[in-house]
User: Fold these one by one.
Assistant:
Number 1:
Amino acid sequence: MIRLVVSAAVLTMLALSTAPLQAQSMRSLPPPEPSGYRLDDYRAPTPQTLAGATVLDTKQARALWQERKAVFIDVLPHVPKPANLPEGTLWRDPPHETIAGAAWLPEVGRGALAPATEDYFKRSLAELSHDRREEALVFFCKKDCWMSWNAAKRALSYGYRRIYWYAAGVDGWQAEGLSLETAKPRP
């Protein structure tokens, strides 16, 4: 009888001591793919998948880039002008570094787009793809950034069929020692 009580106590202690590890393990799992767009908290862990798209690692993205087999589209938003600047202060947008040759379409990765932004996105995709829905399009921004996931998902909803999502984005590119260039937003 004493032996059974000790065993139960030991099991209880083990269960309690591993609970924090299990909770930590659960937190480190990527989130599941949502059915809709991410509407806020864009800099957070992203899913590992995007239904209808191909998820690229840096090696795969680099191969597409080197072979010039896809249009690369950076969707990171503009850095906003600080609201508390003293009157008369000149504001210059900081340089935006991106993958060489990529088109920068700021703001199109938000979960909800204003009509003008959605028109800009549709028009830009049509021009970049030469109105070919089968053109390979690679969407990216930064690591743990939902904006590229949203933009790729939205491009799928517009009927584009060869959508790639490069989840590591500029951060993954730069971590591999690959070069970046300064870009201006696409008009």
Number 2:
Amino acid sequence: MMTLDSSRQVHDYSLSSPTAVSVRCEATLELGRKLTKELGIDQSVDTLGRWMAHYIAELIQNVEKASSEERPAKMRACCDAILNLWKHRHTLSDGKRPFEELEPLLKILESIDPEDDTPRYFREVRSVTSAAGKNDEVEKWLKLIDGLDYSAKVLIRYCLTQAARNSINKSVEWVALAEAAGADEGIEFPIINMIFDEADMLKDSDSGVEARERIEDRIKRLEEFAKMAMAVVSDLRQEV
């Protein structure tokens, strides 16, 4: 069960300079304001969410009204509560979770990085290919399976990245706030950054040599996949 235990330290503030701590704390307050707005103080029918929104809003007001002597302690308690709530963001109710619209895509994107050589569908193909030995016909078909696996990852990732573009803009603010606050990133951030990287690669392909080479390699392998698919279509037509 989630609790907002503000007494538990989330950050080790002693490791940072006073200026860095101040900047990070202000960023954390902004994250708290965003969470409070998302949870909804007055309109939400989610009782627990409404209580958490009130609680965080009250802590933020305490910081804003605190004297110079009281402010450090109240700021720390407020930041720890905000970061603890952020850590439990996945348990928030439907319609209130950051990155909620990306959740179905994140689960799939996590496992289909084309730069990862691990096969997605046929993980034993390479070891079986080696075991095939001198049988050229068997080896040829097994290598085709390996190429199919890579092509499937490229195509699926491209489609999902395009699908994510409609939702990714809503996540940009969450990412920026959480990073500025030094909040727990979880699995979403690498996946979201992967989407950003994919978009940047396509955008930079005109000027970036490495990006252009990666895209050209994908095009070449997809073209080979298309030829192979048409060859299979031809074989199947002869069977009917």
Number 3:
Amino acid sequence: MTALADFFSGRPTPEIAQAVLGKQLIYEGPSGPVGGLIVEAEAYLGPKDSAAHAYRGHRSPANEALYDEPGTIYIYSRHGQYLFDIAVQEKDNPQGVLIRGLEPTIGVAQMAAMRGKTGPEISNGPGKLMAAFGIHDKALNRQLLNAGPLQLKLVGGRVPARIATTARIGVSQRGNSTDAPYRFYVAGNPYVSKMLKRDVDQKNHGWQA
């Protein structure tokens, strides 16, 4: 088993969603590398999770990536934006982690130019961070992380001082999973979606010193 597959399997998906916080995500784009530290992620638990794309075993060409091996990229569109999810369990166990927020550290000026924004608005949401990377299609869907231009560095990064947990944002109201506490974020980081200014850790951005 590869290091990537080992990281993305063998433990509950909510644990994996917390483990990606502080890891560096890098996209080797046409204009050079861009990337940053993951600060927000949501867990989706497959057939038993009414907010998941694979609820009740739903399977189609659109969500087939979730059924692939762990570490597979799942890109989907919503409201004209592209979102980045990762298959995180063994093949045919369609659970995933949605990457919702990123603190830019590489190619920051380029990311700001892609978004036409500065500060947290560059990447404080799942569609925003993909736009900041310059990803506007599903070309990377069903590719493996670290086998192409989208890289997740399993070594290094930063350690959150505290991980906060809430219900997920903007999920389906069907079933009984709408309010499940499967959203995890670096408490105090300004690049977390919907982070209030009064809650921002201005000094350390929520990372251990």
